[in-house]
Amino acid sequence: MKALSVNQLAYQLAQKLLSNPAFYGIAVSKSAAGAIIIDAGVKATGGFEAGKILTELCLGAAGQVDLGFKSYGEIDLPSVTVTTDFPAIACLGSQFAGWRIKENNNIAIGSGPARAIALKPKEVYEEINYTDQCDKTVIVLESNQLPTDMLIEKVTTACNVAPENLIIAVAPTASIAGLTQVTGRIVEVGIHKLKTVGLDPKCIKYAMGYAPISPSGPDFEVAMARTNDAMLYGGTVFCAVEYDDDAKLQEIVNQTPSMMSKDYGKPFLQIFREADKDFYKIDHNLFAPALIIVNSIKTGKTFKAGKINTQILLKSLGF
After folding, report:
1. What 8-state DSSP symbol labels residue 296?
2. DSSP 8-state code for residue 80
3. 304-318 in b/e burial notation, b at 16+ Cβ within 10 A?
4. DSSP class of residue 118?
5. What pLDDT is stored for residue 217 in this prediction?
6. Which of 306, 305, 301, 193 has its CA nearest to residue 245?
7. What's the distance, CA 278 to chain centroid?
8. What whole-number distance in Å separates Cα of residue 319 and Cα of residue 316?
9. How far apart are the C-alpha atoms of 152 and 167, rounded to whole Å?
10. If the chain, 319 residues long, is cut into consecutive pieces of 10 residues, what is the mean pLDDT of each piece?
11. Who contacts 276 (Cβ-Cβ below 8 Å, separation ≥6)?
12. Do the Cβ atoms of 131 and 113 come closer than 8 Å?
């Protein structure tokens, strides 16, 4: 069977945005070298629909994103649900924000299928045994600025593609599209944490998850913190795995939720500021879904750990 190409799939999906900019509230332009730039919230308005497509682009179009309302205690909130039948490839091989692109004194963080060509970072692709080859590519940037010619050249060089075959989509965290896209990482966060505590991501065969989309506002730091809280205190992830050791699987699941972190129990903005705004000072165990559910396809057993923390979630979201 021919390997799935996240770049080919995402490039085709991007045409949906490009074919109707007015509907998606985006602005489309070209760099001096001919790369296509999609502004989904820097100067353009963007919105939920743009955020939905951006999230699917991050997944290499190997997953589906749905928007709707979910109940969190006594309140319903707009939420993003992500479904994928290719969890390791879609989430770790494409969506994971793993490409740090240096640009003078700035560092842009890239997500999406371009990573699978450039192998950023290489160890992830060795672990999931996946690479992609394509003469067209897509990268998504979480940024308040549109990409410079220098950044575009770094991407095209690393991916060995012509500039006119590169699509760069950009949305700031605090924009509606950005908030949707970042919260749409809920499944990736769950899979990454499962990997961290000892589960081989290749054994995860199907995955689904949801989390609330934060209310918007002008402050980047607040928006960043709220998207973290949406997942840490309001996110749920379900995975179906091929694993035959139920005792070990229960142990892994028990270690996975955010409540296992020593930093758990406060809004992320408070945690971030107490850590002098240094992510590396925050316990890495915190970055996980509130609730994790794992079904063993081989034994039929299902395990869960964690809980939705409505009190801290609503406090963070400004209620």
Report:
1. E
2. E
3. bbbebbbebbbebbe
4. H
5. 80
6. 301
7. 20
8. 8
9. 10
10. 87 98 98 98 97 98 98 94 98 96 83 98 97 97 93 97 98 96 98 98 98 89 96 98 97 98 96 93 96 98 98 92
11. none
12. no
Tokens of 92: 């770790």
pLDDT for 2 equals 61
What the block records as the tokens of 40 is: 């989904």
Residue 58 contacts residue 184 (beta carbons within 8 Å): yes
CB 109 within 8 A of CB 103: no
Helix axes 176-183, 48-58, angle to 10 degrees: 40
Each residue of 200-236: b (16+ CB within 10 Å) or e?
ebbbbbebbbbbbbbeeeeeeebbbbbbbbbbbbbbb
What whole-number distance in Å separates Cα of residue 16 and Cα of residue 14?
5
